[in-house]
Design goal:
Blueprint lengths: L1 H15 L2 H7 L2 H11 L7 H17 L3 H14 L4 H13 L3 H14 L4 H13 L3 H12 L5 H13 L3 H14 L4 H13 L4
Length: 201
């Protein structure tokens, strides 16, 4: 227990001075203990734990130890379950490993935390598509845009449909975006581009 406390003290000092160098030198046997001990600082200094986790995970990633980095972030989720930074990095690692089912699960959690963040829906749809679940990918946009008054939701849905060569649905979505935000020049330019692609001159 004394060695664990000592390791925690070293890491806390390293956070302030030269965190990455100290983290790299810590043995794997101590890393789990460090993570557990630092969880006690969450209420007062949550950024300390995040910095330690990111440094440790970056070390794993540099060494191409993706499974180890994923395992670290999964443990960190137990301590900081609503950290968008941790979830975002974890989702990226699952994508890197081509484990799209688990990546989709991460993005669902992120949507639960921030339902107004359209980018998370985009990432969920992409993970479903990469997993071969086209119906689930399409359902993300259908559910999001049903009854929505957010023009950006329709614009992102249009980009999805365009990528699927479904120009009819893409144009329909951009038209709804323009209807909700008629002064948005970007939406109008996209609508013009989609009309041209569909040869609706």
């Amino acid at each position: 227990m004394f060695s664990q406390k000592y390791a925690v003290l070293v890491i806390l000092m390293a956070t302030i001075v030269t965190l990455p160098v100290f983290i790299y030198a810590v043995d794997q046997a101590d890393k789990d203990a460090i993570l557990e001990e630092l969880s006690g600082f969450i209420d007062r200094k949550p950024e300390i734990l995040r910095n330690v986790i990111f440094s440790m995970a970056d070390e794993y990633t540099r060494d191409n130890k993706i499974d180890e980095a994923i395992a670290l972030y999964e443990k960190a989720r137990g301590v900081l379950p609503e950290s968008e930074d941790i979830l975002n990095r974890l989702g990226g690692l699952y994508n890197q490993k081509a484990d799209y089912e688990k990546a989709a699960g991460i993005y669902i959690k992120m949507i639960d935390l921030k339902p107004d963040n359209i980018w998370y829906y985009n990432m969920l749809a992409e993970a479903n598509r990469n997993a071969g679940h086209e119906d689930s990918a399409r359902a993300v946009w259908e559910e999001l845009t049903t009854g929505s008054s957010n023009p950006e939701a329709f614009m992102q849905a249009a980009n999805y449909y365009s990528g699927q060569d479904n120009m009819e649905k893409a144009i329909e979505s951009v038209e709804k975006a323009v209807g909700l935000a008629p002064d948005n020049v970007g939406y109008l330019q996209n609508l013009e581009s989609f009309y041209m692609r569909a040869e609706r001159f």
